[in-house]
Task: structure prediction
Amino acid sequence: MFSSKEELESLSQGFEGFIKSLPEDTVQYGVYVISSKLSDSQLRSRLSDIERESKTLVKNYLKDYIWQKESFALQLKRKDGLLLLSGSTNFGDSVADEWLIVWILKELSKKFTDAWIKVYDNDGDFLLIEAADKLPTWLTPEVSENRVWLNAGKLLLIPIDGHRSQDPHQKRSKGLKISETLEMISSSASSLVDDPAIQSDAFRRILNYPAEISSNLHSSLITIPRLLAFVLNRLPSSISRAVEAFYLRDPISMKPLQQTNTTKLRFPPKDFVTVAVRFNKVGFAQIKSQQFPVPPSWRVAMANLMGEKELSMTEISRLETGMKVVCGFEMLIQAAARKNDRVVREIEILLSDIHEDEEILPTDDQIQRWTKHEDDEAWLDIDFTEFDRELSGDAPVGDSAKNSKAWADKSAQENLKKIVERFQKFMNDEDAGLDGADLDESDIDDENDSEDEVNFDERRFASLMKEMMGLPPEDVAGVEADLGGSQDLHRSTDQSDPKEDTEAGRSASKDIAFAESRRSKGKQKEMEDESDEIDESSDDEDINIDYNLAQNLLESLKGQVGAAGPASNLMGLMGMAMPRDEPEKPNKP
Result:
């Protein structure tokens, strides 16, 4: 805990040091103007010009954009004696929103060449992550603090000690303070690293912006009450808050919908119309993917709609999606904790106006004149066979058109290929150290200078791997058999430094020992005793062990429910493509 309020506040002041407490899914940005010729009033005026230009960009290109959570905004502030424009945006689950902000900042840097812009999230300088395989060896997370800037449409790096160091064995510095950074930029801007290869990778996701900004949105026809259609027509951005309320629902927020009496609902299920609604793509996927049984307040209305005429599958889908959206708005408005929410207040004002004059509700003729565009939902469907083929690069050329339709999002296809290429390159790098980079003397732990012999216990390592994958004790031999082909985890060459190899081995052994020490000694002894009893020469027992291993790996994969985890990572490294865990179909009588 923090000992004083001052210590807590110091974490969020300006950009003085990397803010490790930055909330997840939040991108923070700051715009500085570096010019010794500007007075304080002129600097303020210059920053105001940049702020106005940012609003113009948003108005021209993002007028109809639906942000997942929060929108982009800059505010003039003074921090640590410096005037700047700063802001932060919670982009939620939509990483596309974060990259859209990068594009806005990049465009501002093009127009105002004296503006120097910093952008980062809780992962740090995430632009560097995109260009990880192009970065100079001296640039690490430990030294990158306040060294990464946007200027004149480029990503520029402040080198160590003010020069273009490429020597990985040079003594590494720490990150810079913001005051030091601005001084270095002002005095020696020409010495900054300007690498086109780094910039190409760093801005790859926004290469085709602004043309592809609309690809982050999805328009869908849904069937909802006329009252809500009016609200969405006036406040289209409110859909994101309703989706969030629906997606994060709990028994308390669902309580108003569990009543059969609909008089207390703000959007009672009646007077239905079909309208086109724009969603953020992530939000639409969250609505469509959720299994949501019809609540009691909607059962009579749904039965009546079904009884009036035979609905097609498309009409049923629109009605089901509309029901989810309406329930999301009910939960958003009914929640007491959200009464002070700006979006809720705006909705309440509209509902109050309607209560006073119901004639302002749109007529059927007016709704018919509204846009009725509906986007294809094919991007929601994933063919996992095609998925694996695309990642491995084995897709036939003739199937390119088919694959593009299956993927629907070309940028997603390119991003996944890039990820796999980098991962394979990393795994095949025999010269990489423990951190995936060349080790130098400053990186090696000098706590123990003795040249003790390094003993690596394969059985203990296998036991640790077994525990991580959730395997029972009797399967440890199966894991050991897989690991036994390589007794030395750190490959050495004739040119390798014996001291570095020794220290690396000691570091790995210490990590394993630390993780293993969390287990009780009794459990460890029991696993070792059981593993000693396994006869590895028996073919029958080998088969049983392999079967158990496969069974437990599948159980571990199932437990991940589609998320990343040790089992899926291990299977991927072994080149095994696992299908989706579909529910079992009942046996036919």
Remarks:
- The longest strand covers residues 82-90.
